[in-house]
């Protein structure tokens, strides 16, 4: 495997605010504007993967406006090839509102209004030549059913990896079948609860029978990997002070897939990804995880030596 990855997703602008308290429905809170940074879950992962020196492409549909051009330029500066972007001037500028409190955050994602997208011939050829295709349910769902994008990815021989977000599970029957096409599913605690509600406690076993490796991310508690008939792999997390957890999951996922591209074992992939994500939350901004392999290994060595793994 040469490690060529194609990311299908959205690049957006993250507006950061500090809340005076965490609200419940009906509350009013005071928010202080902090800064604006370029982000987007899948774009963040693309930047992290490219940071390891791997050829990384991104497929997105943008409006071609000034903000879009600025975000695209920043991706290119991270080493991501954006030459396969398509343009639809009717689309809004993609934005996220990130509300911080005590190192944690709530994210409000504005509707990107991407619907019934079509793959261009060049995009189709790019996917056919990829080693890994990384995306999410909502991004794949943005393509019209007649595009058969998931089947095309699998037929190409690429490994399909999906970031499973709880809020993207909108069509339970169709979504489960789509998840079943994947080789790797990244599932956080919220997604795990939602999957269990929709499909029952045995959903993981059923997806493994369909061929997927399930990677459960648990923040500071580390991660678990369940694949095939093997015993679950549990890897502890790191005791680090969080500055901003935005992008930690994106860093983890991209770093895990970097390990896959290198032919590492699942345990090695998980250990490296845990360290990369822990390192990332020490920085403000969703792309704090962009680093070299050597920088992540140095971080891991320092913390293992200091006994700070939880």
Task: Lay out the secondary structure.
Layout: E1 5-8, E2 12-19, E3 31-39, H1 41-51, E4 56-59, E5 61-62, H2 66-77, E6 80-81, E7 86-87, E8 95-101, E9 104-109, H3 121-128, E10 132-136, H4 137-141, H5 149-155, E11 159-164, H6 172-180, E12 184-187, H7 189-199, H8 203-209, E13 213-217, E14 223-226, E15 233-235, H9 248-261, H10 266-280, H11 293-306
Parallel strand pairs: 1-4, 1-10, 2-8, 4-6, 5-7, 10-11, 11-12, 12-13
Antiparallel strand pairs: 2-3, 8-9, 13-14, 14-15
Helix pairs in contact: 1-9, 9-10, 10-11
Compact description:
With 310 residues, this protein is α/β, with parallel strands linked by helices.
- What is the CATH-assigned architecture? 3-Layer(aba) Sandwich
Quaternary state of this entry equals: single chain
Kindly report the CATH topology. Answer: UDP-N-acetylmuramoyl-L-alanine:D-glutamate ligase
Number of domains: 1
Rounded mean pLDDT score: 92
Note the total helix count: 11
What's the CATH C level? Alpha Beta
Describe this structure in words.
InterPro entries: PfkB_dom (IPR011611), Ribokinase-like (IPR029056). The protein is an alpha/beta fold. The chain has one domain (5-12, 41-87, 115-306): UDP-N-acetylmuramoyl-L-alanine:D-glutamate ligase (3-Layer(aba) Sandwich), CATH 3.40.1190.20. Helix content is 36%, strand content 23%. The strands form 3 sheets. A 9-stranded mixed β-sheet has the order 6-4-1-10-11-12-13-14-15, sandwiched between helices. A 4-stranded mixed β-sheet has the order 3-2-8-9. α9 (248-261) runs antiparallel to α10 (266-280) and α10 (266-280) crosses α11.
């Amino acid at each position: 495997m040469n490690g060529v990855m194609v990311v299908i997703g959205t690049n957006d602008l993250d507006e950061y605010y500090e809340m005076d308290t965490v609200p419940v429905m009906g509350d009013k809170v005071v928010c202080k504007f902090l800064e604006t940074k370029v982000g987007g879950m899948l774009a963040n992962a693309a930047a992290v993967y490219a940071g390891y020196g791997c050829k990384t492409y991104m497929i997105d549909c943008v409006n071609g406006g000034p903000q879009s051009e600025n975000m695209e330029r920043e991706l290119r500066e991270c080493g991501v090839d954006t030459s396969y972007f398509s343009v639809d001037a009717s689309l809004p500028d993609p934005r996220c509102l990130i509300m911080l409190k005590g190192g944690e955050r709530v994210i409000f994602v504005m509707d990107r209004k991407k619907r019934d997208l079509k793959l261009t011939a060049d995009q189709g050829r790019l996917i056919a030549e990829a080693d890994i295709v990384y995306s999410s349910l909502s991004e794949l769902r943005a393509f019209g059913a007649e595009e058969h994008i998931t089947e095309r990815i699998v037929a190409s021989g690429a490994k399909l990896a999906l970031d499973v977000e709880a809020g993207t599970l909108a069509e339970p029957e169709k979504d489960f079948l789509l998840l079943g096409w994947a080789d790797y599913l990244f599932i956080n605690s919220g997604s795990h609860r939602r999957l269990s509600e929709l499909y029952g406690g045995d959903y993981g076993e059923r997806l493994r029978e369909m061929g997927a490796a399930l990677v459960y991310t648990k923040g500071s508690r580390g991660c678990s990997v369940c694949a095939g008939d093997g015993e679950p792999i549990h890897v502890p997390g790191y005791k680090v002070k969080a500055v901003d957890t935005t992008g930690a999951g994106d860093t983890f996922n991209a770093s895990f897939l970097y390990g896959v591209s290198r032919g590492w074992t699942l345990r090695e992939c998980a250990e490296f990804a845990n360290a990369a994500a822990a390192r990332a939350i020490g920085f403000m901004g969703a792309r704090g995880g962009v680093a070299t392999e050597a920088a992540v290994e140095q971080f891991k060595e320092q913390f293992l030596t200091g006994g700070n793994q939880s």
